Amino acid sequence: MAEITFDYFVGIDVGTTTTKAVAFDTKGNVLSQFSSGYDMTHPHPNWSEQDPEEIYEAFQKSLSMIVLPSLADKSIVSFSSAMHGLIVMDKDGKPLTRLMIWADNRATELANQLKATDLGQELYHRTGIPIHPFSVFSKILWLKENEPEIFSRTHKFIGIKEYLWFRLFGEYTIDYSLASGSGLFNFSESAWDTLALTTLGISAEQLPRLVSTTHIQKNDTNPNLPLVNYVIGAGDGPLANLGSGAMNPGQMAFTMGTSGAVRMCVAQPYTDAKMRTFNFFLFENQYIIGGATNNGGIVLQWLEEQILGSKNSIAKLIEEAQKLEIGSENLLFLPYILGERAPVWNAKAKGVFFGLSITHTQAHLVRAVMEGLILNVYSIGKILMEQQQIHEICASGGFAKSDFWLQLVADIFQKKVVICETVEGSAWGAALLAMKALNMKEAANTVAKGKEFLPNLAVAEKYSQLHQKFERLYEKLKDEF
């Protein structure tokens, strides 16, 4: 493989609501891109599902629009994927369930019961994943308790990337990165965790085969997808670190798309005594620790579509919100409309507007939501900064296209924020991983940095007080959710 020359490094980013294919050159310049979306459904309270076939069709369409037949010999494709999803497959390769995504909270009661036990603590320290309904472990536990007939018929428990790989190659394979986010993977042994499997009553044979994140396979049999080499890749969170350049001590990655997360790279996994952080594998001796929020850009989308119904565009409202004073004139927002993972790990948490008055406008609501989202992520970042001093935040994701968002991050965290030249952090991370799989020197290059946002020291105290009020409000309300 190493002697083959590629000009097009295609990162295929299978996200929560969109699959995006982005073609890069070796310097990270975007040559072309295409995306295709799909819906999230909520058939019952606390359920969040998607149709895996719709995602496959979006994947097929996006990739075929980028890797044209004339470019096939010059292209290599690498995967980035949303994490923590579960699809149950029968022995004939047919899904028995829809895709239960990271936001699915149906396992809340079971997870809460287990989390409070010594077994729950031991599972966390063995796998590095908190006991919470977002994890694949908790989703399988729910199926075992509530859908025994489906559970008994299960041939394989997989996620969305493994489903796409199965459609490509007819085999069930998972990379160490996706596996590490499942709550089923033992870090010290780099294998499926025997205690987790015993607790669930499943076997390792019911899970995909584990491979390196740089595993390469050639598609030479499936004519519905480009006949090129595919690198299995990794989870979108770890790849956002790689793609945004946040791989060194003192750097923190901040990603916000549908959901959001802050993460940093460490040489060894680290578990938190209060079970507040996660651990993901990327490469040997390079692990990503951090915390993810369920509530990112999807909250602003909800505000626009379901609440405001405004004649003004959300871009116009954000422009108006930017003119308002810090704190939106005493309007504070807890953003937990999808429950929450980090930092509170409370699937029952709810969204709250606190302090509404007759003088508040739509722009006030928009600013309160944007501030609430960043204040919440700052609560996660504080935990990470207990372990490592941070001097720079590397931003990626859809929010990195907005100067107002990025200045909010700089001001609330009181850290310098930089964006990489491409804001498609996870897709570029996947492309870099493909270069690493080919042993190319470009894979080690420092990611080119773009615009910088410096913290405004004059607003530090105001945001500090606002954040303290934010955390006090949650503590006062958490037992009422």
Question: Can you tell me about this structure?
Answer:
- The protein has helices at residues 52-66, 108-115, 118-127, 136-146, 148-153, 160-169, 176-180, 194-200, 236-244, 297-308, 314-321, 362-385, 403-413, 425-437, 460-477; strands at residues 8-14, 18-24, 30-37, 49-50, 75-81, 87-89, 99-100, 156-158, 173-175, 185-186, 191-192, 209-211, 216-218, 229-235, 251-256, 260-266, 278-283, 286-293, 332-335, 351-354, 392-396, 416-420, 449-453.
- The protein is α+β, with helices and mostly antiparallel strands.
- The strands form seven sheets. The chain has a seven-stranded mixed sheet, sandwiched between helices.
- The termini are far apart.
- The chain has a domain at 8-236: Nucleotidyltransferase, domain 5.
- Helix 9 (236-244) packs across helix 14 (425-437) and helix 10 runs antiparallel to helix 12.
